[in-house]
Amino acid sequence: MRRVLPIAVLAAVLAGALPAAAAAASYETLATDLQSPTAIAFRPGVANPVVAEQKGRIVTVRKGRVLVLADLADRVGQGGGEQGLLGLVFHPRYAENRLLFVNYTDQSGNTQIVRFTTGRFHKPLKGSAKTILSVRQPYANHNGGGLAFGPDGFLYIGLGDGGSGGDPGNRAQNPRTPLGKILRIDVDGGDPYAIPPTNPFAGGGGDPAVWALGLRNPWRFSFDRRGGGLWVGDVGQRQREEVSWVPKAAPPLPNFGWNAFEGDRPYAPQPTRGDLITPIAAYDHTQGCSVVGGYVYRGRAIRSLRGHYVFGDWCKGAIWSITRKDATRVPIGVTLAKLTTFGEDDQGELYAASGTGRLIRIVP
Fold first, then answer.
1. In the chain, where the domains are located
2. Could you report the average pLDDT of every consecutive run of 10 residues in the chain (364 residues)?
3. Which CATH number applies to 7-363?
4. Burial class (CB in 10 A: 0-12, 13-18, 19+), 162
5. What global pTM score does this model have?
């Protein structure tokens, strides 16, 4: 299937440079002593961010202090630099059920999706741990790690292609493995979960939990709280980083293209099944080397960013904004060395964290 380069991306490529833009934002530092933060989440109705740290701690930041909610180091394995506690998300009805979901690699390097019930002071109760899903990982890299509840109420799980380089097992395009996919499960409809009947392989022909194919190492993905569309940052191999978008009314089988494509360029040409998702934006490794997916800004504090997708790059520390209509990356005026992840609070305001241990809130 032929992949068409969006006009906005093509224009930026032909121009050879991105236009300068006036700074739209600044930031305030909330903490500087986190330990390799990988994910930021918020309990519904609670203003204090909750942060996953790679070695296994779950912490919250309150008035500049880092407070430990749980230490899962006895469960979490970190034999490779990309392993560890990689994701967390609170159930949309957390105020009622007190459920928290985490994504980590265990001592054997395999992915575990585990549910906890929280107790006093919102601390996860270790005795409540229930494994929802386990995935064997053939290599130590490309674990993905993202978790998000969609507007349909289902839990979406991002998994990389299993690692090594170039997807040697062609796993991302193989519908029978969960690797290189976004999975979608119903954690309220079964024990430990049910398969949504509209999943593309719910009736057979592939792993029934698979919702989308063709990802290398999705880091991170999020749903636009207003439009419901899914935005995904997928880390490239050696040439191209990409950001893609899937509408709320998604095609039956979204396919992000890896490893037939790396970003917007052919990589290992082959037939691709489903509906090929062309990147909204792609950039080469003179501009960065590891995309960090973010959020569509829906807050009120920064008027000029409203409706813009905000994301960045780990290598450059750059934070940019784009829109679906204009893929030109515009610096928002904030950089964060070793950027690792973004977060969004109840009001739609944005946060970011760094591998150096810094947590910031993006402000006017």
1. 7-363
2. 37 37 81 97 94 98 96 91 97 97 97 97 96 97 98 98 97 98 97 98 98 98 97 97 98 98 97 97 97 98 96 97 95 97 98 98 98
3. 2.120.10.30
4. buried
5. 0.94
